[in-house]
Amino acid sequence: MARAEGAYLGLAVGDALGATVEFMTPREIAHHHGTHRDIRGGGWLKLRRGQVTDDTGMALALGDSMLRSGRVDPVDIADAFSDWMRTKPVDIGNTVRRGIVHYRSTGECRVPPSEHDAGNGACMRCLPVALGYLGAGPETLAQANRRQAHVTHNNPVADAGTLTVLKMVQAALLGEGPTALRALADDLAQRHRAYRFDRRRMENPSAYLGDTLKAVFQSLFATDDFESALVDVINRGGDADTTGAILGMIAGALYGRDAIPERWVSTLEKDTRRRCLTQARSLITLIPSLRAAL
């Protein structure tokens, strides 16, 4: 449970910390912030201190759907995402917006396959699936992943990257260490060139999931604690709220809730912190029923 709570809080603090420097280069971050290591809001979205973006918002919408329906139900998820978009969130990706509009106009909760949909929007929100389907068989997990992802993103390369993140979170939840997580990342990189991450330091990672996970993997495996890993990836700039969110969920599961600096957790807006903790606990309790449910 502590690791599940760490994963959800890690997602949120990574999102909130990274949003301040999203789309900045490492040189710009250094000029304006030195080493950026405190949640302060602002950024191009002009956030309140402790406010999160679509990364955490969509994860919570997905988790609400799973808790309501007791499974990964694409129609219910599409409705949840559509309702979330009606709240006029502070940020929303183009691919996500297009997928929700597709659902509203056609009633179809699965977008057509597209080579252009290998962005990170389905991965950034995937944590509820990792928690709810802990202990499920590999094909059940893969199907659950595709069902939530294809509401907005239908691309086999993105599916593979997101599934690996789910496996890494689940391995960490069960007490596996960095060696096991590195093996999962290496396997992904061997199967898909887009995810090879050891040749050069990834800076200014784009929203393409290959770039996002290169930065996440490099930071995760070059450090040995939650704070160092998150600060490293955030200060690479680029799509920093999403690299922060994805690294945060993995590292939060790996190191546990107590490893996340309290100055970050306490700065999160209270409702966000409460919802993250509630969903972490509730999704874990759904495990027995979800193992067989799709």
Question: Mind explaining what this structure looks like?
Answer:
The protein is mainly α. The chain has one domain: ADP-ribosylation/Crystallin J1 (ADP-ribosylglycohydrolase fold). The chain has 15 helices and no strands. Helix 3 (54-69) runs parallel beside helix 14 (270-285) and helix 8 (156-173) runs antiparallel to helix 9 (178-191). The radius of gyration is 17 Å and the shape is globular. The chain starts with a helix and ends with a helix.
Considering the chains and any ligands shown, give keywords for the structure:
mainly alpha; 15 helices; globular; ADP-ribosylglycohydrolase fold; 294 residues
In brief, what are we looking at here?
The chain has helices spanning 2-19, 26-33, 54-69, 74-86, 94-106, 127-132, 138-149, 156-173, 178-191, 209-221, 226-234, 240-255, 262-265, 270-285, 287-290.
Produce the secondary structure layout.
Layout (H helix, E strand, L loop, with lengths): L1 H18 L6 H8 L20 H16 L4 H13 L7 H13 L20 H6 L5 H12 L6 H18 L4 H14 L17 H13 L4 H9 L5 H16 L6 H4 L4 H16 L1 H4 L4
Compute the average pLDDT.
95
Q: Class, according to the CATH hierarchy?
A: Mainly Alpha
Largest sheet: none
Q: How many DSSP-defined strands?
A: 0
Q: For the record, give the distance between the C-alpha atoms at the N and C termini, rounded to a whole number.
A: 23 Å
Number of domains: 1
Which strand-content bin applies to the residues?
under 5%
The shape is: globular
Instruction: Report the helical percentage.
Output: 55-70%
Output the CATH homologous superfamily.
Answer: ADP-ribosylation/Crystallin J1
- How much is the radius of gyration in Å? 17 Å
- Class inferred from helices and paired strands: mainly alpha
Uncertain segments are: none
**What would you say the CATH architecture is?**
Orthogonal Bundle
CATH topology: ADP-ribosylglycohydrolase fold
User: In sequence order, what are the helices and strands, one letter per element?
Assistant: HHHHHHHHHHHHHHH
Helix segment tally: 15
